[in-house]
Amino acid sequence: MNFEESKSRYILNEYGVANVNATDYPGGFSCEEPWSQSKFEKNFRIEIVRYNKTEMEFDLIGIHAAIANAFRRVLLSEVPSMAIEKVKIFNNTSLIQDEVLAHRLGLIPLRADPRLFEYKADPIAEPTEQDTLEFELKIKCKWNSSAHKDATHPDDLYRNHNVYSKHIKWIPIGGQADIYKPDQVGPVFEDILISKMRPGHEMDLRLLAVKGIGKDHAKFSPVATASYRLLPEITLSREVEGEMAERLQKCFSPGVIELEDNGHGRKRAKVKDARYDSCSRNVYRYDDLKDAVKMARVKDHYIFTIESVGALPPDVLFIEALKVLKKKCSYFLDELNENSNLQ
Question: Can you give the pTM of this predicted structure?
Answer without folding.
Answer: 0.86
